[in-house]
Amino acid sequence: MFYRDERLALFIDGSNLYAAAKSLGFDIDYKLLRTEFMRRGKLLRAFYYTALLENDEYSPIRPLVDWLNYNGFTMVTKPAKEYTDSMGRKKVKGNMDIELAVNAMELAPHVDHMVIFSGDGDYRPLAESLQRQGVRVSVVSTIRSQPPMISDDLRRQADNFIELDELRDVIGRPMRPDDEHTAAAPTTETVD
């Protein structure tokens, strides 16, 4: 449910959206995503949040970050922390929840509708606070994956739940492992 005269802002949790799309078997075409939401309302900002590994000579996400930066997205990045868990597995910690929440709260007085691309239940209090400020909140994620990628609490709190799988024909493209622009998360597991 969108209105053409609404001022919109997009908040994309990069690793969460990547995992949701991957679980459904497609990649996100960010140019099409931006165009689609420009069509739905007056798009003021499109934020993309991701943690970056600093010590890698080549990061698979770097081409995507650079492309987004030059094509109308506001990039919010921070260094990821790499560690080894008790089972000896390499893990990456790069939670962007606070950055996304702070930006959303700062922008709330200037927008009518925020779209959060994440199923992370940690965003439920944010959605509730934005709604108290008169901002409509839509959440884009999926219940069609096993397990579902959206928290039930967040889905219930949102004014609208948009099933990512239903956007496949509008913003998706087939997965191609050799395509640099499809990488939206570090290749190692990301932990919140």
General description of the model:
The protein has 192 residues and is an alpha/beta fold. The chain has a single domain (7-191), classed as 3-Layer(aba) Sandwich (Rossmann fold), CATH 3.40.50.1010. 32% of the residues lie in helices and 29% in strands. It has 7 helices and 11 strands. The strands form 3 sheets. The protein has a 6-stranded parallel β-sheet, sandwiched between helices. A hairpin with a 5-residue loop joins strand 5 (81-84) and strand 6 (90-93). The protein is globular and about 50 Å long. The model is unreliable at 179-192 (pLDDT under 50).
| CATH-defined topology | Rossmann fold
Mean pLDDT: 88
Report the total helices.
7
Order of helices and strands: EHEHEHEEEHEHEHEHEE
Shape: globular
Helix content: 25-40%
Count all strands and give the number. 11
CATH class: Alpha Beta
CATH superfamily, by name, is 5'-nuclease
List the strand order in the largest sheet. 4-3-1-7-8-9
Main β sheet profile: 6 strands, parallel
List keywords for this structure.
single chain; alpha/beta; Rossmann fold; 6-stranded parallel sheet; 7 helices; globular
What's the short story on this structure?
The chain contains seven helices and eleven strands. The chain is an alpha/beta fold and 192 residues long. The protein has a single domain (7-191), classed as 5'-nuclease (Rossmann fold).
Layout: helices, strands, pairs:
Blueprint lengths: L6 E7 H11 L1 E3 L1 H11 L1 E11 L9 H9 L3 E6 L1 E4 L5 E4 L3 H11 L5 E5 L6 H9 L3 E6 L10 H6 L2 E4 L4 H4 E3 L15 E2 L1
